[in-house]
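Need a sequence for this fold. Nothing fancy.
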């Protein structure tokens, strides 16, 4: 695998498509770009960004058709995790966690060559260069949509391998919905999403199970302020190869997409039905 030597500040960053309706889809882990200076400190395996949320933009292409805002990073989560708090506090105390600047694969092995882990200064620099601009854009877009519409639905889109013993036991449910234990979205939105899950018996589902929502869901999901946040962590085996080369599987994805769209639309309808 080769690496672009273009300076990180030119290549890294994000893409934002501003929408016309009060719906913002965030895809904080779909990036795979690793700047060359960081790539050379990683073990060779890490340079493929295997723990990326691959193909999220393709899987959620219906969101743009709906008129939603879509925010997509370019940088890999191995550089900085955009869904972790800036103070690096564990999201799931008592369980295996990855850090703001991860040092392990989802399988538990080290990402970095021995002695090459990022220093405190390097982690701060990455937070300033990559994490902060993404969150500035996210916060500003939410503010714009609330100003226009009075409220907004933030849908945080994620995917993960179905089996990762270092992170969870056994086979993960297919659709893992998180609302920070019911704190990040109105109950009507939560109910609508789960009802949409029930309409397709092919996929198992759970609410606030192993994945209750990361920093984005917990921090920005403030129903009293008009922002309702839902995280979906879905199993990759239903739309892509879970191992290299991580290829998109169109036939399987076409089966999954109607369910995803139904979930998002149900949440949006519920948002629109909330009394002002």
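Here you go.
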């Amino acid at each position: 695998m080769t690496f672009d030597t273009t300076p990180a500040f030119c290549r890294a960053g994000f893409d934002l498509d501003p929408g016309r309706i009060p719906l913002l889809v965030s895809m904080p882990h779909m990036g795979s770009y690793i700047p060359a200076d960081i790539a050379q400190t990683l073990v060779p395996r890490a340079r493929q960004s295997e723990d990326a949320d691959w193909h999220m933009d393709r899987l959620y292409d219906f969101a743009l058709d709906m008129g939603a805002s879509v925010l997509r990073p370019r940088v890999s989560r191995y550089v900085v995790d955009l869904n972790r708090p800036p103070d690096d506090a564990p999201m799931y105390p008592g369980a295996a966690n990855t850090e703001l600047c991860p040092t392990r694969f989802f399988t538990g092995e080290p990402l970095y060559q021995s002695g090459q882990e990022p220093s405190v200064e390097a982690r701060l620099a990455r937070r300033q260069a990559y994490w902060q601009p993404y969150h500035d854009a996210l916060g500003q877009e939410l503010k714009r949509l609330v100003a226009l519409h009075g409220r907004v639905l933030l849908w945080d889109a994620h995917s993960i391998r179905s089996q990762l013993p270092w992170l969870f036991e056994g086979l993960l449910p297919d659709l893992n919905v998180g609302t920070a234990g019911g704190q990040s979205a109105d109950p009507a939105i939560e109910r609508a999403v789960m009802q949409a899950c029930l309409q397709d018996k092919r996929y198992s589902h759970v609410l606030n199970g192993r994945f209750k929502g990361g920093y984005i869901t917990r921090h920005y999901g403030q129903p009293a302020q008009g922002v309702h946040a839902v995280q979906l962590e879905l199993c990759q085996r239903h739309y892509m190869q879970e191992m290299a080369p991580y290829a998109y599987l169109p036939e399987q994805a076409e089966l999954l997409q109607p369910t995803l769209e139904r979930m998002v639309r149900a949440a949006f309808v519920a948002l629109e039905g909330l009394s002002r």
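For context: The radius of gyration is 18 Å.
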